[in-house]
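Hi support team,

I'm filing this because I wasn't sure whether my run with fe (ii) ion finished correctly. The job status page said complete, but I'd like someone to confirm that the output block is well-formed before I use it downstream. Pasting the exact inputs I used:
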Amino acid sequence: MSVLVLADLHLDRWLSEGRDPFAALDPDLLASLDALFLAGDVANKPKVRWPKAFAHIGKYIDLRRVHVIPGNHDYYDFVLDDELRLAKLCFEHGPHLAQRSVYLNGGLRILSCTLWTDFRLHGDPATAMQVAQANMNDYRYIRLKNAGYRRIRPLDTANIHSDHRMWLEERLAEPFAGRTVVVTHHCPHPDLLGDIRREVDPAYGSDLRFLIETAQPEAWLFGHTHYHAETTVGRTTLRNVSLGYPDQVQPAEEAKFLLRGLIDLSAQSELPA
Ligand SMILES: [Fe+2]
Ligand SMILES: [Fe+2]
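And here is everything the job wrote out:
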């Protein structure tokens, strides 16, 4: 009885290099999971590469138990504003789209969404948006269907962040007599973005400590940075559960990175150390 949350599989990159990250895991563990949450960056080009990624994952686990939260890469060569199409892609191939989704299993509640960022991390959102637009592929490879298929801008993703954050605030404010785990692609804490401060950090994470301190979920699991950091805020464990690109992961490290987000439903609480 367990749920595995993992982010940043970038499975298109792994398979093109002839590596299979799941081969490092006990197949019985994968097959026995109640649910597998993929917290973003499954593969670029979802219309072409999600079906291939799902077919591969389906060798290890019944896809009806797989929940997909889109990351920024999952919108590449696609549009930001057609999640119905992403839901349909999931429906046709087996897994569930878990965008603004509430998963309930016994005493466990998982709230999931992409999240994006508010660009406020360094106190100057206007500059942070300019830096992101000039430097991040998100603003080159993702388009907006309802605006003549123009390239997206940081204000577009900031608006989605606002929607997703409000949705999380509302769900977390609802009484729930059990364990709550939040799963997002983007980072909710300023100290978990990397060893050095970078100009693009506001496109990777936001400071949601007030929300975390107020709601105190058991855990908040995320990805996007491929930086394996964790911390606590009050009773909440915050942990990056990225796998990352194949050139960032030594063969002996795959299982360690893949299992950082294993939630044991028979235990009262706590993630693996
Ligand atoms: Fe990623
Ligand atoms: Fe990402």
